[in-house]
């Protein structure tokens, strides 16, 4: 269980308003809430658009200069002394998965807003401007396309990427954008000039169990893991389950089970941070014919191998694929391996990590240096500016779930640390 100590104040006596922070976070959390506290705000849905309107209202109340780009990314700016100096950004997203929680994303947006408006209220001298940003479409839940808004800002999305994206109802992303009055040619101009950026920070719930398990309140992120994703199809023979002897079966599901066990054992061997911790998941299996009285003749597996080390990730992926071929050969069945996606891990900025560490030490904040196993907008922003992430504990590691929860004290501490770090970097 995470600690419930009160947030630590800065040496200058400037502290974020924890009550206001939670008030605004809860206001966002009520939008899209359904049964048993589940929150659903799919990108470009009525509820997600409503959450953005609430944020715009909060930015206006805080006296920030508001800019909304063509895709709907929202920026709120507090000017520094030098209007030409590159800005320090902080933020995250407001869209959710289906039946998710209320902390994934909004903690980073509202935490950044609270940090910046506290700085403004206290008239803290700043050399560079500060900006809070809310990116559109970080989650892939609707169109299968993650980090949409930040990818456009980083110049990593092309028009053809958008034309193929379709949701579960068959609605094309391109048609949704057209309905909102967004033309593809407008999106070409969204890339932010790196010269206008000094740094990007993202406060986020961990979405994993490590901080909660070790009792530390802050995680400082070194790198963001990326997946190798592929489809493995075993083709055996469907036969009668009662008349086919065990030694004459060509069971595709048994082959799948052997491979799944191999994936677990192999990833456990590559579990140390020193070599780039690898995790592996078989997230879905489709069996044919899929009836109780037939030997499975076909099994399709979706495999996800992730690590912060491209070398370790690719090595494990090769081992898994070689094992699949060996299993198929030994059991006299066919196998097909199809690549889905290959992404590169993203290292975060070492200098920003050191600055955040220094502030933690000065404030006696117990922290953990750790990687992020999940993707975030920071991995796109890191392509155009130095980027850093601050994690706070997720109770029992639960996320993308109505039971997702982080304590108000830890949320406030994360926002406090974010504020102090942004002040330091803006004045360097």
Tell me what you see in this structure.
There is one protein chain. Helix 3 crosses helix 13 (408-426) and helix 11 packs across helix 13 (408-426). The strands form 3 sheets. Strands 1, 2, 3, 4, 5, 6, 13, 14 and 15 form a 9-stranded mixed beta sheet that branches. The protein has a 4-stranded antiparallel beta sheet with strand order 9-11-7-12, with helices on one face. Helices cover 34% and strands 22% of the residues. It has helices at 18-29, 46-61, 106-121, 148-153, 159-163, 173-179, 184-187, 210-214, 252-269, 310-331, 350-362, 378-381, 408-426; strands at 65-68, 74-78, 87-93, 130-135, 197-205, 218-224, 226-235, 239-240, 278-288, 294-295, 298-307, 334-342, 346-347, 367-372, 387-392. The protein has 2 domains: 18-224 and 345-426, Zn peptidases (Aminopeptidase); 226-342, 2-Layer Sandwich (Alpha-Beta Plaits), CATH 3.30.70.360. Strand 1 and strand 2 form a beta hairpin.
Structure summarized in a few sentences:
Helix content is 34%, strand content 22%. It has 428 residues and is α/β, with parallel strands linked by helices. It is globular.
How far from one another are the termini?
36 Å
What would you call the shape?
globular
Give the SSE string.
Answer: HHEEEHEHHHHEHEEEHEEEHEEHEHEH
CATH topology name of the largest domain: Aminopeptidase
What's the CATH C level of the largest domain? Alpha Beta
**What is the architecture of the largest domain at the second tier of CATH?**
3-Layer(aba) Sandwich
Strand content: 15-25%
Largest sheet: 9 strands, mixed
Count of extended strands:
15
Stretches where pLDDT is under 50 for at least 5 consecutive residues are none
Q: Give the full name of the CATH homologous superfamily of the largest domain.
A: Zn peptidases
Proportion of residues in helical segments: 25-40%
- Which structural class is indicated by helix and strand composition? alpha/beta
What integer is the average pLDDT?
A: 94
Number of helices: 13
Count structural domains: 2
Rg is 23 Å
